[in-house]
Design brief:
The protein is mainly α and 87 residues long. It has three helices and no strands.
């Protein structure tokens, strides 16, 4: 593995000095209160759109999308979050 490859094997990432890193989403707030995530999940399950949830929660659309991804990874939803057709 070259010095610039970043592993994605669920091991902690240790930044190496001298490399030119880019921090993704540095303009977003990536933390949510438990109550806010509960509201986002409830609104999603109730059929609200991502844009409507963002407006009501006074957050950026992308922040809500990342919150929904977080919740989907924990299998919180019954309503499909993303549909991937089977082959």
């Amino acid at each position: 593995m070259s010095a610039e490859m970043i592993p994605t094997d669920n091991q902690p990432l240790h930044l190496k000095a001298g490399l030119d890193y880019v921090y993704a989403f540095e303009d977003l707030e990536l933390t949510f209160t438990k109550k806010q995530l509960d509201r986002i999940a409830f609104r999603w399950e109730s059929g609200e759109s991502l844009e409507d949830i963002a407006k009501k929660e006074r957050r950026k659309d992308l922040e809500i999308l990342l919150g929904l991804i977080h919740l989907a990874r924990r299998r919180v939803f019954e309503r499909p979050f993303a549909f991937r057709p089977s082959n």
